[in-house]
């Protein structure tokens, strides 16, 4: 590693550890690299690279998906999904914990963001589970663990970013993440069922006669059409991801404003404000990451990594194992968006060079980075859930450990059987 590359990476990591926002840490590292190398002639190019990183039609899907999710939250449509999840999953032992996971699966098809899941569902389920006798740490653990399903079940903002950074078809990637996402949910539900037997967790008693089930389904079908519209449009080749996001946002607006009348014109300003703020935070990271990646390209980092992996000669399985370890460690310290922007193109190219299918690798990468949301020191989903439950971080870590284990087991299955990721995209013609 050259001295100039060391300055770039050490400056970036040092500033992040010191608490500087990731976007500014990347730009500061680029400037430190210029100061060390004396390449000040590149300084006027940095804003251009930053802008070009964000100037992508595909990335316009991000604010539109976020807006659709904010409209759903503001419109209290979540309540209808929770009631539907009660009907579907509440009959099992540990009913409320099962409903928590089931609601995350349903809600994932609308927001595609882990923290959005916690912010919306955590405030409902954590107090409800505590009231029913679950410990606050266990309630927070279920909520935090199930939230990582969100970025796996389409539509997924992480998949949009990954596809735009690596050139992998976003529609194919969303199709590829569907079955693995459902597998993660199933694994967590099996764990809750085992824990429910050991701890005598109760079922949810409610009317489940055909008329009640039909009513709950009818109330849930309208919000559940949002992911259907997105997936049908993208997978059917009718809409691009950006167009699908626009249609979903308009649909959510009409449903909340006209059909349910749960959103007023006066509240729309706050909805648009939150959507713009969150979108800006994501896109500025994308732009700064493009400038940072440009400098890493100047340092020939992609070629260095490719040559290094080639010299290891680990074979397909060994290479995949190394990639998993790298991604898990990166996910423990850096948020998924930043990892994908900085290392996605580099690792994806190296994986393809090693004979790994780019779609399968994309699914594995996204899942690895999502698991990082449950592991210290970053663990943003843990911190978000603990803030709601106020259960103590140590207790939350203990309660989360079994869920982390089953997530890793599910990851191993997904890695070992590429067909779980590739079957649906192949059926759909990708």
TrEMBL record:
Its main location: membrane. It holds the Pfam family DctM. It is found in: Cell inner membrane. It is a multi-pass membrane protein. InterPro entries: DctM, TRAP_DctM. Keywords: Cell inner membrane, Cell membrane, Membrane, Transmembrane, Transmembrane helix, Transport. The chain crosses the membrane at residues 7-36, 56-72, 105-126, 168-192, 213-238, 244-263, 275-294, 314-334, 339-356, 362-384, 404-424. The keyword Nucleotide-binding does not apply. Residues 9-420 form the TRAP C4-dicarboxylate transport system permease DctM subunit domain. NCBIfam families: dctM (TIGR00786). Part of the tripartite ATP-independent periplasmic (TRAP) transport system. The complex comprises the extracytoplasmic solute receptor protein and the two transmembrane proteins. Belongs to the TRAP transporter large permease family. This is TRAP transporter large permease protein. It comes from Nitratireductor kimnyeongensis. The lineage of its organism: Bacteria, Pseudomonadati, Pseudomonadota, Alphaproteobacteria, Hyphomicrobiales.
